[in-house]
Amino acid sequence: MEAFYPKYYQDFHCLAGNCPDSCCQSWEVVVDDATYARYLQIPGNFGQALQSAMTIDSDGDRILRMENGKCPFWNQDGLCEIELRLGQGGPCATCRKFPRIVQDYEVFAEHDLSFACPEAVRLVLETETELPPERYAVNVWPEAYDGGYMESLLRARYTALQILNSNALRFSEKLILCLQYSQWFQRLTDGEDVQPFAAVAFPSIQRGNPTDIFRFYENLEILTSEWHSYLNHAVADPPTPADYEAAQPTLAGLEKQLTRWSCYRLRRCWLQAVADYDVLGKVKRLVCAWAVLHGLLAVTLRDTGAADLFRLVQLYEKEIEHDGENLDALDDALFAMPCFAEEKLISLL
Fold it and tell me: How many CB atoms neighbour CB 68 within 10 A?
């Protein structure tokens, strides 16, 4: 089976005790069956501690019971006590793999790192974008999905990534053109009689107000007080057109990092449309993410004179992209709520 690994993938090393936002806090850790069976065989006091720390949550998953918002085996040095005592194979499957992620399409797989990890964010945003293949050498597609549609998705994704990598456009223009392309491809997918894709003139839209979008995000499940503080402040004192304008020099200096962020997000989400034939929804999710991050950056720059793009990117992934219920609510809202209409999102880019 063919597999795609971005070049930064092999460079990842966990920061362990030096991590600024350890994955050992905020999240409940699900204990897989194999690890559970192994923990039951651990003798002595440590085995008893492992066994007593496990419980069943409201979803029926076996988890390690959190203590003060963190894993009970995350020690004062910021290290995993399970790994220290049992070796690298000691932690459960989730902990051993994170932040490594894989999207497995049976006949090919694409590997990456999760932006919920601060070190993964740094690696991705500091490494030149590498485009995945335009096609994989597959002779027979699995029955689980439409192989012909997957082939068209791969070709279209390659084109969309080229749009995002263009040096001739500003970042906001890249996103708008990518959104236009996804709208065209969605119409093609839906069986409409469309002409070959051609970009339309970039719309001249008055700068919008993101307050309703911030309010929506504020009502989702929130893990960290930091993310809640960002949203709460943005709702109470939203960015003005002048704030967006004042932020432009800072964002211009981050053009390469923003391009890499958008390519990463699009590369991961585009092929998911093979399950629901909804490419437009995937790209709207990307555009919406930037609308939120853009507004938060503008507010933070206005109020403090500085803003940490890397931290905001990581928080967004941790709070939204790693929460299935939040993602489902967002996907529904993208096509149901007026504040998420394409024209509204474009006004916030």
Answer: 7
The whole-number pLDDT of residue 188 equals 96
Q: Which pLDDT score is estimated for 204?
A: 79
Q: What is the CA radius of gyration of the chain?
A: 22
Instruction: Enter the tokens of residue 278.
Output: 């909804």
The pLDDT score that the predictor gives to residue 73 is 93
H or E stretch covering 283: helix 279-304
Q: Is the pTM of this model over 0.70?
A: yes
Output the pLDDT for position 305.
Answer: 95
State both tokens at 242. 């002048």
The answer, yes or no, to whether the previous bond of 132 is cis (omega within 30 of 0) is: no
CA pair distance 39, 137, nearest whole angstrom: 42
110-130 confidence digits (pLDDT tens): 999 999 999 999 999 999 999
Locus of tokens 């440590």:
46
Collapsing DSSP to helix, strand or coil, 220 comes out as coil
Of 247, 239, 234, 230, nearest to 312 by C-alpha is 230
Query: Quick check: 322 and 120 in contact, CB under 8 A?
Result: no
